[in-house]
Amino acid sequence: MTKTTVFQSGNSQAVRIPKDMALPDHIKNIEIIAVGNTRIIGPSEDTWKNVFAALDQLQLDGDLIPDREPQPKDQEREEMF
User: Domain map of the chain by residue range?
Assistant: First the structure.
């Protein structure tokens, strides 16, 4: 995983992208998606394809959805009508 720095550029926050991680020259517009504290940036085209590819590379530990107790069985009730 490559690390970089975040800095202020005027009233905006900017991220310095290292040369070995630079986007191709033809990419002029990007989208940023927030997933918790993580930000995923990628070309505007094929956004969801890029999001899923980036999430696959995160190598998350464990399941994002915690286990929970099983739901109770349906209750038997008398009919109202």
Answer: 6-57
Residue 22 CA to residue 17 CA, distance in Å, equals 6
Amino acid code (one letter) for 12: S
CA distance 54 to 48: 10
Specify the fold of 6-57. Pemi-like Protein 1; Chain: D (2.10.260)
List, for residues 58-77, the tens digit of each pLDDT value: 776 666 677 788 889 999 99
For 23-28, which contacts have Cβ atoms below 8 Å and span 24 or more sequence positions? none
Query: 3-state DSSP: the chain helix, strand, coil percent, rounded to 5?
Result: 15, 25, 60
